[in-house]
């Protein structure tokens, strides 16, 4: 399935692929770099963020210049199997580390006097109080938020983009939904979300790993009707 998605994505990203201008020219350099950027973005979107850049470049050069490939088809197939096995092992270890770190963080955080710990495992701290309505389960809300990992790295921020997000409560992860359903319009909370209420073992994209505990600063701006 991923191979089919990769091939389709290549056709969409490189719809007008053409030979570069004369090697060494400014146009050739810029065009080649652009193709590299697009391919790199595609690979990263597929969850591939670490490659041996020298081997990768050599393979592309061998194909473009119609040289004999350094690995047979069977050897390349086995290389993919070996890499997938290695990544699975690394991901399992990372998931265990993230789960343990998140549990330890939440246990410490729950001892803070201004933090409310809910039965679900969700925790929150009230930063500002509003006096508006509370959203219902079927409502769409307008929210400003910033999401970070427990080490402080920002992975998403409508605040940085300068544009609030709108979404139905039914369409977000359980922790986000639970927190917003308790908030009043005008409230601004800091929410601490265990992985079981966020993206779980799968994680999300390149920035949220498996079993990551997440921290959100969120402000409920309005209920969209």
Give structural notes.
42% of the residues lie in helices and 19% in strands. The chain has 225 residues and is of the alpha+beta class. It folds into two domains: 2-70, no CATH class; 116-224, Roll (Chitinase A, domain 3), CATH 3.10.50. Strand 3 and strand 4 form a beta hairpin. It is elongated. The two termini are 39 Å apart. 16% of the residues are buried. Mean pLDDT is 89; it is low at 1-13.
Determine the strand fraction and express it as a percent band. Answer: 15-25%
Specify the biggest β-sheet: 7 strands, antiparallel
Helix-strand topology string: HHHHEEEEHEHEE
Query: In total, how many domains does the architecture comprise?
Result: 2
Q: Give the CATH topology of the largest domain.
A: Chitinase A, domain 3
CATH class of the largest domain: Alpha Beta
Alpha-beta content class:
alpha+beta
Q: Based on Cα principal axes, name the global outline.
A: elongated
Stretches where pLDDT is under 50 for at least 5 consecutive residues are: 1-13
